[in-house]
Every structure is written in structure tokens, then in C-alpha cells.
Amino acid sequence: MYKKILVPLDGSALAECALEHVKTIAAGCNVPEIVLLRVVEPNPAVSEALAEGAVMYEELNDQMQQLAEKYITRITLKFRQESGVDVHSAFAYGYAANEILEYAKKNGVDLIVMTSHGRSGVSRWLFGSVADRVSHHSTIPVLIVTPSGCRIDTVESHK
């Protein structure tokens, strides 16, 4: 059913919780290819510094990209060893939801598997939800994994 699964990772342990689910799906559905995608988003403070003529912008941007590339390469190698599946890494620079959707569209992805950080209230309003934006705008299936311990059970809290 699935030939290519895309797993966006933001460098957090919460995002990596999706990998166990992907292993199970890949094994059960004989998925031939998995892509781990790391998107580096523009930093508003860095963009502001650039507008003020900061020379170190390019160095800082390069450093952020190098760290992201090292991270995604390390996770890809580890996941490949643990799962035995053909795993590739990809890297993008831009706004996460847009880059995830664009990558999926251009590369024939059949399923996107990602975590939700479980933000609510003001923090969700301030930071938004990449998972929410991806799930609302994707034309392909999206599996959103909620890592245990990251949300309060709202049903229980209203009793």
C-alpha cells in the first residue's frame, strides 16, 4: 500500500517518537523506502539582524544548516541499522509545514508520519502547529503521533 513514507524531524526527542511507529508500519506493509526530513526554519532574530546589515548572518545560517544535516544523517544511519529498511535523509530550509508538503508532493510520498508536540492555548497560538497545518493542507494521508506524556488527558481533567 505504502511505497514511500516521509518522516519530518525537528531535532527533538518528541519528533523522534514517530520512528517506532514508522518501523512497525514499514515492517507490516513492506514499505520499500522511508525518508527522514529535517527542515531548518528561518530565525526571526537572524532575519532582523540581516536587515540591520549583520555580516555574521551567513555564518550563523551555515552553522544551523550543518548542525541540522549532521543530526539527520546520524538519525538516518541509526534508523537504517535498527529497521533494515531503505532509509534516506533529506534537508530543506524554509517554513516547516510548507517544506514538508512541498517535499511530499514533489517526491511521490504516500504517507507522512509526524508527531504533535501537544501545544495548546497561547503557545499553540504563538508557535502554531506544524502537524496541524500539514494535516489540513496535505492531499496524502498524514499520521500524527502524540507521544505519551506530552498531553494532559482532557477527558480526565474535566471529571
Core attributes:
disordered C terminus, five-stranded parallel beta sheet, 159 residues, alpha/beta, globular, 5 strands, 8 helices
Gross morphology is globular
Q: What can be said about the biggest beta sheet?
A: 5 strands, parallel
Distance between the termini: 41 Å
User: What share of the residues does DSSP label as strand, in percent?
Assistant: 15-25%
Flag low-confidence runs.
Answer: 121-127, 151-159
The helix-strand sequence is EHHEHHEHEHHEH
CATH homologous superfamily descriptor: HUPs
| Order of neighbouring strands in the sheet with most strands | 3-2-1-4-5
Stated plainly, the CATH topology is called: Rossmann fold
* Separate helix tally: 8
Q: Helix coverage percent of residues?
A: 40-55%
Let me know the number of strands: 5
Count the domains: 1
Oligomeric state, counting identical vs distinct chains: single chain
Reading off the top of the CATH hierarchy, the class is best stated as Alpha Beta
Mean pLDDT: 83
Can you name the CATH architecture? 3-Layer(aba) Sandwich
Query: What Rg do the Cα atoms give?
Result: 17 Å
Q: Helix/strand/pairing class, anyone?
A: alpha/beta
